[in-house]
Amino acid sequence: MQLKKKFWKLASLLPLSLLLFLGGCDKKIAVLNPQGPVAKTQYDLIIWSLILMSVIIVVVFVLFTVILIRYREKPENMDYEPPDIHGNTLLEVIWTIFPVIIVIALSIPTVKATYASEKPPEQTKNIKPVEIYVTSANWKWLFSYPEEGIETVNYLNVPAGVPIQFKLTSVGPMNAFWIPELGGMKYNMDGMVMDLYLQADKPGSYTGRSANFSGKGFTDMEFELEAKTKDDYNKWVKEVQQTAPKLSENKYKEIVEPGVVGRMSFSSNHLKYVDPKSLEYCDYNYYKNKK
């Protein structure tokens, strides 16, 4: 009896401790604070998975409790010997079908969301995406705007309400590009280009980071994405084009050397120093257009 009392006392303190733990979080969890259509789709998938898993957990614990109470050893059944039963076809069918149903219920929305993320968001599919090459290096991020002819380091600006087509690559070790409030991560790999579509619904500042350990400077691989109105974005592009220095090949090689650097802006980009033939495009649309 004493052991039971201690157990229930500890169990009653668990919700309180969880409440106090969550009370220490003064900021929203980024992945649960979607600020764009891609992030919203992935957020809905997370919530659906949590609800489904919660239902399963509740059902399992209810069944466990019922069986534990109903079939426990009691004074009146101390001498009871259960009959020798070799399987139950109905039960075996049930516990085989239910896991299949659960997998299907998780797989269908997951596959749909995965394929949807490989193209511009449905809401803005008629708007031309802004193309930005994202190059990870030890331990910084380079953002090249081929159409605007500019480049930034460790920060980037984008127009709100417009899809962004990120082309991810790397100089050196593999990394992972992630802006939690705008969508899931994707890998940056040396010699390869991976497409990632994201979009910010409204102006604001969003923190991006590396999601793949890459050495001692890994924790410094954070950057800021600022979504601006269309007018403010165009004004910023013109300002960089007119006031920032050109990015020379020597300066580019200096930047990608292992080390931590601050924010930089250039009125040209390093793409002209990279041989496109050396890059393998992991993008279905690229090959389709080539044909």
Automatic annotation (TrEMBL):
Catalytic activity: 2 a quinol + O2 = 2 a quinone + 2 H2O
InterPro entries the UniProt entry points to: CcO_II, CcO_II-like_C, Cupredoxin, CuRO_UO_II, Cyt_c_oxidase_su2_TM_dom, Cyt_c_oxidase_su2_TM_sf, Cyt_o_ubiquinol_oxidase_su2, QoxA
The Cytochrome oxidase subunit II copper A binding domain, residue ranges: 127-239
Principal subcellular localization: membrane
Record CDD domains: CuRO_UO_II (cd04212)
Membrane topology: Multi-pass membrane protein
TM region(s), chain numbering: 46-69, 90-111
This enzyme's EC code(s): 1.10.3.-
UniProtKB keywords: Cell membrane, Electron transport, Membrane, Oxidoreductase, Respiratory chain, Signal, Transmembrane, Transmembrane helix, Transport
Annotated localization: Cell membrane
N-terminal signal peptide: none
Domain Cytochrome oxidase subunit II transmembrane region profile: 23-121
Family matches, as PROSITE patterns: COX2_CUA (PS50857), COX2_TM (PS50999), PROKAR_LIPOPROTEIN (PS51257)
PANTHER family: CYTOCHROME BO(3) UBIQUINOL OXIDASE SUBUNIT 2 (PTHR22888:SF18), CYTOCHROME C OXIDASE, SUBUNIT II (PTHR22888)
Record family assignment: Belongs to the cytochrome c oxidase subunit 2 family.
Role this protein plays: Catalyzes quinol oxidation with the concomitant reduction of oxygen to water. Subunit II transfers the electrons from a quinol to the binuclear center of the catalytic subunit I.
Cited NCBIfam families: QOXA (TIGR01432)
Protein name per its UniProtKB record: Quinol oxidase subunit 2
Taxonomic source organism: Bacillus yunxiaonensis
Lineage: Bacteria, Bacillati, Bacillota, Bacilli, Bacillales
